[in-house]
Every structure is written in C-alpha cells, then in structure tokens.
Request: fold
Amino acid sequence: MTYLQLASRGVLGFVMALAVVGKLSGRRPWRDFQASLGGFGWMPRPWWPAVAALVVLAEATVVGLVLHPATATAGLLFGGLLVLAVSVAVLGARRAGREVRCHCFGGDAGPIGKAHLARNVVLLLVCGTGAASSAVTTATPGPATGGLLLGLAGVAAVALSYPAELSFVIAPPARRS
Reply:
C-alpha cells in the first residue's frame, strides 16, 4: 500500500460514508433523495425507492471495499465507476433541460451544477490515482503517517462534500446593520 493509495482510500471512503449517513439520517433526507431521482426524467416514480436503495448500497459497498487493503483497488475502481455513472446521468439530464437537485449528502445542495461536476472530476482523479498507485510498490506508511494521512483525507472529504457550508467558515456572510 502506498501513501497515495491510503490517501485516496481515505478521501473516497469518507466521502461515500458521508453520503450514506446523510441520506439515511432521517425520513426527510431519505424521501428527498428518492424524489431527486425524478429530476433525471427517465425513471418512473415507483422505481425511486429501489434505485435509491441501490445507490446507498453501492456507496456503502465502496466504503467496505476501501477499508481493507486486499480489496482497496476494487473499491477505488468501483467508486470511480459509481461517480462516473452519476456524472453521466446528470450531464444527460442537464442536456435535456432538466434540473436535478443534489441530495447526495442528505440536505438540499441546490441544482447540480458545475461545482458538483467539478467535485466529481476531483473524485474521479482520486479514484484513478489511488487505483494506479496500487500497482507501484513503495514504502508503506507507518501508523503516525497513516493516521495523519487519514485525518487529512477526512478534512478533504468534508471539503468536497460540504463546500457551501465551509464557505461560511472561511468567509462568514457580512453582517447587516
């Protein structure tokens, strides 16, 4: 396991875990996520609960796969395919003039736009880099370095998952007088 692979596993695993927890955090986030699937335009309403469950199952599977070194590369590749499939579906819906709302992490992050697709490109790069680095045998991170890498991966995952919320930490809104 390389440093790059560990960092990639951490980022992808944390992002997917945040997505699963966000969607399953209550009845409303779960219903809203299901309803957001209607924005794609091709999916009949009776399919929404089953497709939503499959998406969450796929995300949870990625988390499980990237946790174990023996299945980490498969998890990175599967995670990349999942992110790519969602991105292609969103691009298709946008081309058709449809609005798909982002309920990826439980709350309503508004219509999926360039920022969401840019996040997906970053995640694809993370998946590809991590998977490719598994073919290279270099030094294995020790416990302290591994812990630091995973901590930084957690911070990166939160930044990728909740950019609008973090913007208030970095630049709070101006006070109104």
Notes: The mean pLDDT is 84. Residues 3-170 form one domain. The two ends are 55 Å apart (CA to CA).
